[in-house]
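Q: What structure does this chain adopt?
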Amino acid sequence: METENGKAVLDVVMPPKSGKAVELKKGQRIRITDIEGKQVCDVAVFNMENVREKLSTSYSRTRYPMKVTGDYIPRDHLTEGDTLMSTLCRPMMTIVKETAKIKGVHDTHHRMCNRYLYESNGYGPRDGCQEQIAAAVAPYGIASEDLPDTFDLNMNFTHDCENHRWWIKEPVNEPGDYVEMRAEMDVLVGLSNCPLDVMVPCNAFNCTPLRVQVLEA
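A:
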């Protein structure tokens, strides 16, 4: 399928509370569109040639490829032009575009929701992002305990310095907003359409579908 931004080699809709594994060749782009707005997508990334090399959100915040100008500044968020780095400190994916009015509202600090979170708070048994991504990447020989901390698209996770805590707020993205990332190596991307609709307004208490496209020139 041809689009205004190239050929779509994959174009699917992820139902609410589901996981998916997507393979990308170097140079291909993945576009994740929030169809109805205020929906979080947890993203795990693995090197297709060596799945033990995987996303490091801490390296992504602090060991990004140095720009032409500017100082070394460890950051608290990622946005357009930033690079997702691996556990071996190599570029995996670059954020090439995001359409939300307020950019960079994505989480790089919080680990995935999981069965323990729900069950310990009286909402289980139910799967979280941990289980959804684990099931999606299991055919590639990746165990649940080997999943990295994820890059959480649209998650509005803010730090309250005065009270020494974090707040999970409603996402700010609107219907049709998307984030597009380019693969800098052959990668496997594990996605979770976040199922959290209790306790906190992570998805505005209403889980909705996502559109996933893989684009190439």
